[in-house]
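Fold it.
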Amino acid sequence: MTHSFSHPLFARLYARVSPGMEGRGVGEHRDRLLSGLRGRVIEVGAGNGLNFAHYPIAVDEVVAVEPEPYLRSLAMRSAASAPVRVTVIDGLADELPFPDGCFDAAVASLVLCSVADPLGALRELRRVLAPDGQLRYYEHVVSRRRSAARLQRLLDASVWPRLAGGCHMARDTGALIRAAGFSIETEERLVVRHGRRQPPVPHLLGTARARVHAAPGS
């Protein structure tokens, strides 16, 4: 199945500028995001595959989902040189073509800002995770400063999402993760500057597991 999610101008711009972000702390954040993973992992919104080089060798396979055609082609190239086996597929984060509980871990990295239904995507990730599976996330989020948050919301209400591949600046991703049925294990708030002339952007780097519901009468 193919999905209509083509953002050719943004995809090419992102592919051009994203490698330069690695030396400004993002590469280190990717290492921390993926450290200690093992088994079978699903990564949604893999983009051009910059995470692939950071996966530890204890990972048996990464299934990388990317709906944007140009970025997916770059991700396939990145997969060829990854230290672990990576399978890149077309797909949407809120419509994952996998049975329940088939992954040991899930990774959402700089993607939940742009999916049409972030809560639905997180619930899908919870569905395909094994009962003891872990969600790893690294996402930019709404600022705690009122003036900055107001600007982010103004951008979201303007042409920004159309220009930036569906990106929304003011999403409260931490709250969405909790609302999707996850319990936060670790969560760190970071400030990332993606370019020398760009203002700092708040990010969350964290881990979570699906909440276990108590049995009736327990």
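The helical segments are 8-21, 26-34, 69-80, 118-128, 146-156, 160-163, 173-179.
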